[in-house]
């Protein structure tokens, strides 16, 4: 993805895993693989694996530089995290921090970490392993998390379930942030910063998780860029917004949130910074009959 400028704000993306093929029916249990074939031409080989119906996804983070803050949005999977229930994420050793350095940012320069939600593949680099302990990766940052989401997961955690909460990520990537006093639990409409003509703020986007949020950049009340997190996982959902993800907390609410996103921003100049679309990643929604498609930026 090319660097984006929204007024005085710069947005850059860097990868942890640039492309990972996943079975369509693992992502979307209700999918008819004929839908993949019917949309293969416009999706192309960057989004659908040639010779199969597996769908490509990316795992990446964003850095927002405003005049006041350097903000990281979503922290991917993390290294050395034990995720036996998800082999593709298990015990990774990726050059994530080197990739961050390649866009000119050091961990200590991050002022704020924004979590669109607290799933394992969005919080992993909140912490890193140091002398056998999980410590904040970004030592000078405040980590902003939706209060309702944290409290829901903490309630699960203190019940000592047999299966670790969020594949173990709550214990190794969220709780240590809270215990180090770096977490700020915020409301779903929290304003990160605002001044005349520009700002960064959250807005509710619940369904995939209880406290999922959008991160918005622009004039307050007029979004010029929206970080969508996991409201939508793959562009094929523009062809069929009813496709629900395996991990959706409330499938109906997730569908309604996704469809509202499409109707709100279709055929506008609002840029979507998506959570899992492979590069070029960013783009805009366009109408296509009674459905939608995604026009990648720069294409």
Report what the structure shows:
The structure is a single chain. This protein is α+β, with helices and mostly antiparallel strands. It has a single domain, classed as Metallo-beta-lactamase, Chain A (4-Layer Sandwich), CATH 3.60.15.10. It is 22% helix and 32% strand. It contains eight helices and 16 strands. The protein has a seven-stranded mixed beta sheet. The longest helix has 15 residues, at 251-265. The radius of gyration is 18 Å and the shape is globular. The model has no long low-confidence stretch (mean pLDDT 96).
Distance between the termini: 11 Å
Strand content: 25-35%
CATH architecture: 4-Layer Sandwich
Mean pLDDT: 96
Features:
alpha+beta, Metallo-beta-lactamase, Chain A, 7-stranded mixed sheet, 8 helices
In short:
By secondary structure, the protein is of the alpha+beta class.
């Amino acid at each position: 993805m090319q660097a984006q400028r929204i007024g005085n704000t710069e947005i850059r993306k860097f990868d942890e895993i640039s492309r990972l093929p996943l079975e369509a029916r693992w992502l979307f249990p209700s999918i008819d693989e004929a839908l993949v074939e019917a949309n293969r031409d416009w999706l192309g080989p960057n989004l659908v694996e040639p010779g199969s119906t597996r769908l490509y996804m990316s795992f990446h983070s964003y850095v927002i530089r405003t005049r006041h803050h350097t903000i990281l949005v979503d922290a991917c999977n993390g290294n050395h995290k034990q995720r036996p229930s998800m082999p593709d994420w298990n015990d990774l050793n990726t050059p994530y921090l080197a990739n961050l350095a390649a866009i000119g940012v050091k961990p200590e320069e991050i002022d704020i970490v924004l979590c669109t939600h607290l799933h394992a593949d969005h919080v992993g680099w909140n912490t890193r392993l140091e002398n056998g302990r999980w410590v904040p990766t970004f030592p000078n940052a405040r980590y902003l998390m939706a209060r309702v989401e944290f409290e829901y997961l903490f309630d699960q955690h203190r019940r000592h379930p047999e299966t670790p909460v969020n594949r173990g990520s709550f214990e190794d990537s969220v709780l240590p942030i809270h215990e180090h006093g770096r977490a700020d639990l915020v409301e779903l409409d929290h304003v990160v910063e605002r001044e005349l003509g520009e700002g960064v703020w959250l807005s509710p986007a619940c369904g995939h998780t209880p406290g999922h949020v959008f991160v918005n950049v622009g004039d307050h009340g007029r979004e010029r860029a929206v970080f969508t997190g996991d409201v939508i996982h793959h562009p094929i959902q523009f062809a069929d917004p009813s496709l629900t993800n395996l991990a959706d907390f409330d499938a109906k609410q997730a569908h309604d949130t996704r469809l509202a996103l499409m109707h709100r921003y279709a055929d506008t100049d609002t840029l979507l910074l998506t959570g899992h679309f492979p590069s070029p990643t960013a783009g805009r929604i366009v109408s296509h009959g009674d459905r939608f498609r995604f026009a990648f930026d720069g294409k």
